[in-house]
């Protein structure tokens, strides 16, 4: 039995979970998220707890069991607390500026790079070299942060670029001088 999948998910006060066949909808103070559960997995709501069960021990059922439970748990955390991911801009002349809802990066290119937030995502700029990506959908927050980091990944010689907050960039020794 899956150690993660068999754990019940507690539904906090103020969160409404609706299960309609294979569709699970979670509504909370920060918003609403929905998920379509893969076919062999069953989801039940009993006494303020969501239970995820599987009908058999087939390989596919076992692999989807813990995943489904984690996805529903992430939705409940998202609508109550939300998710955020911090980014740091490192490099001389590299900076980020808030332009309305969007952000504009100066990353050593010949032009500024503007990034518009998708629906449900907000950008917050602290200073001129820190950015926070926030939202209720964990997957969307991580994907937007990864796409921003992809604009200028941290390079291994000077460490310049966009990195996650707290990310350690492995540095290489440059060419040996004469």
Automatic annotation (TrEMBL):
Any GO CC annotation of this UniProt entry: ribosome
Keyword Ribosomal protein on entry: yes
Pfam families reported for this sequence: Ribosomal_L6
Coiled coil: none
Quaternary structure note: Part of the 50S ribosomal subunit.
Family from the record: Belongs to the universal ribosomal protein uL6 family.
Record's function text: This protein binds to the 23S rRNA, and is important in its secondary structure. It is located near the subunit interface in the base of the L7/L12 stalk, and near the tRNA binding site of the peptidyltransferase center.
Keywords: Ribonucleoprotein, Ribosomal protein, RNA-binding, rRNA-binding
KW Ribonucleoprotein (keyword) present: yes
Domain Large ribosomal subunit protein uL6 alpha-beta: 11-82, 90-164
The name this protein goes by in its record: Large ribosomal subunit protein uL6
Parts of the chain that traverse the membrane: none
């Amino acid at each position: 039995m899956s150690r993660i999948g068999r754990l019940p998910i507690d539904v906090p006060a103020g969160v409404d979970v609706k299960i309609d066949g294979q569709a699970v909808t979670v509504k909370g103070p920060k918003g609403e998220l929905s998920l379509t559960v893969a076919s062999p997995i069953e989801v039940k709501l009993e006494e303020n707890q969501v239970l995820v069960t599987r009908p058999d021990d087939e390989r596919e059922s076992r692999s989807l069991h813990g995943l489904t439970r984690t996805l529903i748990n992430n939705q409940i955390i998202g609508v109550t607390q939300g998710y955020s991911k911090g980014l740091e801009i490192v490099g001389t002349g590299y900076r980020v500026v808030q332009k309305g809802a969007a952000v504009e990066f100066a990353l050593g290119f010949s032009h500024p790079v503007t990034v518009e937030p998708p629906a449900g995502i907000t950008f917050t700029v602290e200073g001129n070299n820190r950015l926070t990506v926030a939202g209720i959908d964990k997957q969307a927050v991580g994907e937007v942060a990864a796409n921003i980091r992809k604009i200028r990944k941290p390079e291994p010689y000077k460490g310049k670029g966009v990195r996650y907050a707290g990310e350690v960039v492995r540095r290489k020794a440059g060419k040996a001088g004469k």
